[in-house]
């Protein structure tokens, strides 16, 4: 084997090793093989490597004829510079792909969070499992927060709007009850009785139904309608004998005698 052949083999091996070191770790770490455009970029870079190898072979053959070692060294330096340029391109490409993958991941996380906000939820409402829409939940919570804040007039409006928008809601019975209490807080016994009677009629199994009857009796007493109050208390005891409201009703009947 001649000195030129040895140098040719050494130069080709050096270029291949340098490109392997430059390309493979960066591409693997960026997950480049998952992207069609990235694969195309790899093929382009490989084509450039093949072209460099071909150029090196041609130059080495030419130098073999001229026997100029200094020119061969200069060519090798030029090839190293081109390899360094390719290495920089690979690093930029790998960084771009990594950034794109991070943006895609952030997008999917954001999309998942948005979907969770609009998806119905399974909740336990007044002791029963129910499916509740996010807007439905917000409307009810808003009305209840107005009541808790002492804004009884607006809470009546909000509960009324809620019942009109979600008549089949799992919160409907509670909304009816708190609307009645909003009226009562304003000393509006007439509308309190109407709201509480609607609760007992429409949702007789609701947890607040016994309390609704007790409130009705209280309003009837305030309105000086003792006979009506007595009948309501007796009805409460008959329908919900084990409830705390029934025990309170018994005490009221005893004290009224």
Describe this structure in words.
- This protein is mainly α.
- The N and C termini lie far apart (127 Å).
- It has a two-stranded antiparallel ribbon with strand order 1-2.
- It has helices at residues 3-30, 36-66, 69-118, 134-148, 152-165, 172-185, 189-202, 209-222, 226-239, 244-256, and strands spanning 121-125, 128-132.
Quick rundown:
The protein is mainly alpha-helical and 257 residues long. The protein is 81% helix and 4% strand.
List the helices and strands and how they pair.
Elements lengths: L2 H28 L5 H31 L2 H50 L2 E5 L2 E5 L1 H15 L3 H14 L6 H14 L3 H14 L6 H14 L3 H14 L4 H13 L1
Antiparallel strand pairs: 1-2
Q: Please, how many helices?
A: 10
Looking across the biggest beta sheet, what order are the strands in? 1-2
Run of helices and strands:
HHHEEHHHHHHH
CA-based gyration radius:
42 Å
Mean pLDDT: 79
Number of strands: 2
Shape estimate: rod-shaped
End-to-end gap: 127 Å
- State the helical fraction: over 70%
- Which structural class fits the helix and strand makeup? mainly alpha
Q: Largest sheet, if any?
A: 2 strands, antiparallel
Residue ranges: pLDDT <50 for 5 or more in a row? 1-8, 17-33
Strand residue content: under 5%
């Amino acid at each position: 084997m001649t000195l030129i052949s040895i140098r040719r083999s050494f130069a080709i091996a050096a270029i291949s090793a340098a490109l392997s070191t430059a390309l493979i770790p960066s591409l693997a770490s960026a997950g480049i093989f998952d992207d069609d455009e990235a694969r195309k970029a790899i093929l382009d870079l490989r084509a450039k490597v093949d072209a460099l190898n071909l150029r090196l072979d041609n130059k080495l053959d030419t130098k073999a004829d001229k026997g100029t070692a200094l020119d061969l060294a200069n060519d090798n330096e030029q090839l190293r510079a081109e390899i360094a340029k390719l290495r920089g391109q690979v690093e930029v490409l790998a960084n771009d792909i990594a950034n794109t993958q991070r943006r895609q991941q952030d997008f999917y996380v954001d999309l998942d969070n948005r979907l969770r906000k609009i998806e119905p939820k399974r909740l336990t409402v007044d002791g029963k499992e129910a499916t509740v829409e996010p807007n439905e939940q917000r409307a009810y919570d808003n009305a209840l927060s107005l009541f808790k804040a002492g804004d009884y007039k607006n809470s009546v409006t909000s509960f009324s709007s809620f019942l009109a928008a979600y008549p089949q809601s799992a919160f409907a019975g509670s909304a009816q009850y708190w609307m009645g209490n909003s009226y009562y807080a304003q000393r509006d016994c007439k509308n309190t009785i109407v709201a509480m009677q609607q609760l007992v009629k429409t949702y007789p199994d609701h947890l607040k139904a016994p309390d609704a009857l007790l409130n009705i009796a209280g309003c009837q007493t305030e309105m000086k309608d003792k006979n009506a109050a007595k009948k309501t208390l007796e009805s409460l005891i008959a329908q919900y004998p084990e409830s705390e409201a029934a025990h309170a009703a018994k005490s009221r009947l005893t004290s009224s005698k």
